[in-house]
Structure formats: C-alpha cells, structure tokens
Design goal:
The protein is an alpha/beta fold and 498 residues long. Strands 4, 5, 6, 7, 8, 9, 10 and 11 form an 8-stranded mixed sheet that branches. Strands 2-1-3 form a 3-stranded antiparallel sheet, covered by helices on one side. Helix 2 crosses helix 6 and helix 6 runs antiparallel to helix 7.
Length: 498
C-alpha cells in the first residue's frame, strides 16, 4: 500500500499511463448506434478533467473558455465549476474508493473511464446531485469515450459505491493506511509528502497545531478576488482587509468587470497583491528609480507594479523566459499607459548582465505552487518531492542574480507561492550565506505597515528570518512567502570567502 491507498503513482500519472489505444476523443454515441446524451455542465467538467489528465492543463486556465464555448447558463457554469474543482481536489481519495469498489488498481482502468468514475464519485459522495443522475450521466460519458463495455463497468462500480455512505467508504479506505499521515492524506485529499511539508512550515512558526485547518482551507472554494490598479481604477465593495487594492467580486462572471474596465481591474489573489505592494512600500519611492520584475509571467504583479511606477515616475522593466507567458505579461500591461519593456530571457542571464542597475527587483520565482492548492487543486497530485529538488537550485540562482542587479541601497523581494521551507527560508539562507553586501529587512514590519487592517503574522520563530508567510486558513489568501533583501549603500558585490 502506498501513501494514497492502493496506488503507487500520482492520480494524473496513472491516467497518462492507462491502457494503450483507449485515449480516443469522446464520441457522441456508443456501440450499435445508441445515442448517448450528457448534460452540458457535466460534459464540460469531464472535458476539463480529460485535459488535466492528458495534457497537464490547469483547470483554472481551461475551464473558463470551455464554459464560454459551451455557452452554459450561469447555473450550469456554476455546476461545471463545482464538479471540476471538487473532483480535482479530492482526486486521491476518490481513486482509493474507486480502486476498492472496482477491486483493481486505478492505473489499470482506461484513463477516460477513470475520469468519468471520478466525476461520478464526487457527485455521489460530496454533492446533493441525485444518485441516478450522477450514475446515468457518467455511464453515458464512459460509453461516449470508450464504448459499451466501459459503460457496463462504470455502472457496476458506481452501483457498488452507492450501496454505502461516504462515512463507510472513508473508514474503509483509511483502514488500508499504513500510518497516521496516510490516514490524514486519505481524509484530507493531500499527498503525504505535501502534508509533511506543510506541517514543517507551520512548525517553523510554532503553529503545527493549525495543520488540519490549513488542509481544510485548501479544500474550500476560494472567493474571487479582484485588484484595482492604483491610479487607474478604484476598488469596489466589499473591500478586503489587507491590500488597499483588493476587493471581492460583487457576483456574476468577474470577467465582465475585467472587460468593462479595460484591464485596470483584474482577478488577483489578495496575497499576491500584498507582496507586490510590500516591495513598493519597503522604502520611500524616488522619482527616476528603475524597477525589474524578473520572473513576470503571467503578469498580475507586473501590472500592479506598473501602475505604481506610473504614479511615481519610475521606469519598470519585466522579464519572462517562456514566450507564451511573456505574451500574457504584455496583455496584462495593456491597461497601464506608457511603454514597459518585456524581455524574454533567462532571468539569471538578464540580471547578471544588468549588474547594479535596479533600485527594486521582484523575484517571483518558479515554485511548486503548494500555496495555491485552493485555486489549482490538481497541483497537489502533479507535483512531487523531486520537483522541489529541481526548483531550489534555480531559485537560488535567480535570487543571487537579482541581488547582483541591485544598485547600492536597492531592495529585492523574493516571493514564492509555496510555503515549503526548502523553497522559502532555505533559499534565502543559502543566498545570504554567500553574501556580505546584503541584509534582510523585516518584511513583517513592512507588511504590517502596508496592510489596511491588523494582520496576524508569525513571530521570527525558529527560522531566524524576518520573512512573511501568508496562509489560506489564517489570512484567506494563497500561501505567499515574502523576504525583503537590501544591498548595502556601499556595496561592491562582495561575497564571503570560503
């Protein structure tokens, strides 16, 4: 038995490794000409699940266009959203239930059929959808995707699942766990390695007892948060407590507000806004400063910094190494008057080549994204400890290069959307260990002064750092990390001798 019950691979890797020849696109009829119909919201949810499983797509990027293409009513759009995100959040738990009910490992089930089963199990065990509707529609999805034989299999498995309550199934799969952490993984729908990483991060603040509250928050649907670019738009009501630019969607499709504003209002998590505002407020802004957003894609923080730069006669440049994401940055910046140059280079090379030029640099480093599991629930099943080991050296190199790009007295903000200690305080410590020209500022004091309301930030704790870690369960934001590092006014780029 593995950390997620009977399966020894991540749910999405299993889907990609399913039986050969069974990944055909869904058909609209089963065998012998039988017409199969599927309610539009379920069909959209199923198609998004397939995209996530087959192409490593992110649901938050695929779902909006799928809803628009299907011309769903607001009610059906809400149902498709709940079915998609709800299924993805609890994928590991649902796979353990399916494996038990089918008496076979999920990596032996056709990938499209497995996604139909997952969608059905979510409806049966976590929603008020009528059982007969959930079963019949998923049987039809399986028939469309893989034929009549698949529909019979799905029907048998789902009928078995409907015989017992969700509590019974939960107890059954937890009995197969080998440890307390495996039981918690099955109960909270988080991989064991993620649970342990989150526990360590909380323990570094002396708050390990908040783990289950954090896991529960990861599984809650987040509210839609908007940003009003300062000087270009005004926040609507209701306002959010911390970032002066943040407010919640008044209801309906937030894209309508975004489109009407011409991009001066955007969807952006409050934590993401707060860390960008903290860099801007870390020291008084002087006209003529030069700023750099080193890892800018997809451009939300860049646009916010661009609006602030416009107010203060500051020159902002952006960089994004991935061309597709660089295009997103340019799109985000259309709402900000003036020219903001967007480079498409390796951030390490760009920063090294511009040594001593910038007064502020944002390093929103590539990371595991474990802090945004509410919004990207599939990330928990897609990432592994190997990703951390691969990312940390890149994060260290990006931050080191960014510090070289600072002018004397300049400030860098190191930001991740991950609370994993190796990606956060570990990176900062590694970089500072090699520098004599850099001091860490008290980011807690900066964020406290920036926030519009009192904010509960951990004391220095065991990390010995002045950094800030935001949390979904405590702040209602993504788990953003922030460290502020300043180059000394007389810096010469000195590094410590071995």
């Amino acid at each position: 038995m593995s950390d997620q019950g009977r399966n020894n691979r991540s749910p999405q890797s299993q889907a990609r490794r399913g039986r050969a020849g069974n990944s055909a696109q869904p058909r609209e009829s089963g065998q012998r000409g039988t017409t199969r119909t599927v309610q539009p919201a379920r069909r959209v949810a199923f198609d998004v699940l397939r995209a996530v499983s087959e192409t490593d797509a992110y649901a938050n990027l695929v779902l909006p266009s799928a809803i628009a293409d299907a011309r769903l009513t607001p009610q059906d759009a809400a149902l498709a959203t709940e079915l998609t995100y709800g299924t993805l959040r609890r994928l590991g738990t649902y796979d353990a239930i399916i494996a038990s009910a089918a008496d076979r490992a999920t990596d032996t089930i056709d990938p499209a059929v497995l996604d139909a089963l997952r969608l059905a199990v979510h409806q049966l065990l976590a929603t008020r959808v009528a059982s007969h509707a959930a079963v019949n529609e998923s049987v039809n999805l399986a028939a469309i995707a893989s034929g009549r034989g698949a529909s019979s299999f799905v029907n048998a498995v789902l009928r078995r699942i409907t015989r017992d309550s969700v509590e019974t199934w939960q107890t059954r799969i937890e009995e197969q766990a080998r440890s307390d952490d495996e039981r918690l993984a099955l109960r909270s729908a988080h991989p064991v390695w993620v649970i342990r990483a989150l526990r360590r991060a909380l323990a570094a603040e002396g708050r390990a007892d908040e783990l289950e509250a954090l896991l529960e928050a990861d599984n809650a649907s987040p509210e839609v948060t908007l940003v009003a670019l300062p000087g270009l738009a005004e926040p609507d009501e209701p306002r959010l407590p911390y970032a002066s630019t943040a407010f919640t969607s008044p209801g309906g499709d937030p894209r309508l507000s975004v489109d009407r504003s011409g991009g001066t209002i955007r969807v952006q998590d409050e934590g993401s806004q707060l860390v960008a505002l903290a860099l801007a407020s870390a020291a008084p802004i002087v006209a003529g400063e030069r700023w750099l957003d080193l890892c800018a894609g997809p451009g939300g923080k860049t646009a916010l910094l661009g609006a602030i730069a416009l107010q203060h006669d500051v020159t902002l440049e952006a960089n994004e190494v991935v061309p597709v994401r660089a295009r997103l940055v340019r799109k985000a910046l259309r709402a900000v008057p003036g020219e903001i140059e967007v480079h498409e280079q390796d951030g390490r090379q760009l920063a090294t080549s511009r040594a001593g030029e910038f007064d502020r640099v944002l390093v929103d480093a590539p990371c595991t994204g474990l802090g945004a599991l509410r919004r990207r629930p599939e990330a928990r099943w897609r990432k592994s400890p190997a990703d951390v080991a691969e990312l940390v050296p890149l994060q260290v190199e990006l931050l080191s290069a960014a510090l070289d790009a600072l002018a004397p007295g300049g400030i860098a903000a190191y930001v991740t959307c991950s609370p994993h200690l190796a990606e956060t305080t570990g990176v900062v410590k590694e970089v500072l260990r090699e520098r004599t020209d850099i001091v860490e500022l008290d980011a807690r004091a900066v964020v406290t002064g920036t926030a519009q309301s009192p904010i509960d930030l951990a004391a220095e704790g065991r990390s010995g750092s002045g950094s800030v870690q935001l949390w979904p369960h405590r702040h209602g934001t993504d788990a953003m990390f922030l460290a502020l590092l300043q180059r000394s006014a007389t810096a010469t780029g000195d590094r410590k001798e071995d």
